[in-house]
Amino acid sequence: MQKVLLTGITGFIGNAVLTKLLKNFSSSMEITALVRPGTDTARFDKFVGKVTIVNLDLSDIAGLKSFLSKSDFDLIIHIGALRGGRKFSKAQFYASNVQSTEQFVDYTRLHQARLIFCSSVGVFGAIPDELPANNESPYNGDNYYHYTKIACEKIINRAILGGLDAVIVRPSITYGAGDIGFPLQLVKLVKYRIFPVVKQNLWIHLCNIDTISEAFVKLATDKSKVTGKSFIVADMEPVQLQDLVNFIHREIYNSNYPKWLKVDAEILHLGERISRFLHLELWTSRFELISHSWFYQVQDAYEQLGLPKHYTIPDFSIVIDAYLKRKK
Q1: Where residue 223 sits, what CATH number does that domain have?
Q2: Residue 124 to residue 130: CA distance in whole angstroms
Q3: How much is the pTM?
Q4: Which of 70, 113, 245, 298 has its CA 20 to 30 A from that of 323?
């Protein structure tokens, strides 16, 4: 019986990972999950009775230290983090994202356990300096959330040099039923015909929830998978933003997006510059994502982890269908 600690189960990726683990490996795993105190129980009640739920905030470093000192885990899957754009102080971001990771690294080194860490393609910046971004691409801490993920990766990579058994997973923006982030907002804006799609050809690279959750499950259940590696995980290929917008509009209205709603990218770049000047990280990121290309080299993940192959078109229909059902 493998003893597993999992963080982030109330988030989109963590929820999907735990669901898959319970479906396929419940008889061989004893799972403990950390949940922030005060979290709405509706976000994790389907797991109650199937895993051990521990109410503990990742920013409570003293509490985390105490908890780990009394625990015995073979594997830690660390997905939980404060995401960018939320109204927390830098101290809270640093404690939740970086200092908690330090505690998990120290624990796994001391107990010869394994660590699987959920980072982000954001370590290359919202818009990478080179395309496609790859595992040799330079770090770019263009906002504080990305900075914390870079700091975590540096801590883990230093420990790997000292013998830590760890793997870093870098998912792109993930889509699927139940997500409330960028993909869902894109569907909403296209439905109401207020999305400012640019005239220029832009390529974006999303990730199906099935692909990223399968990556974590494979790494958690197959100890032969290479340690010390970093994997960028996204769909098989990037997609043109115009094509995706047209696909969404066709699924809803059976016609392409109106041409008169297209704008020049420079208009959005102006919004990006204003948002950056005003230190509005969330709006800066929003303008960047819809006015620049961002895509990644993902072949290593597919070849070494044997991931299911997904293509944004037509798979993005799961987001559209989920949104329309919710509206009804």
Answers
A1: 3.40.50.720
A2: 9
A3: 0.94
A4: 298
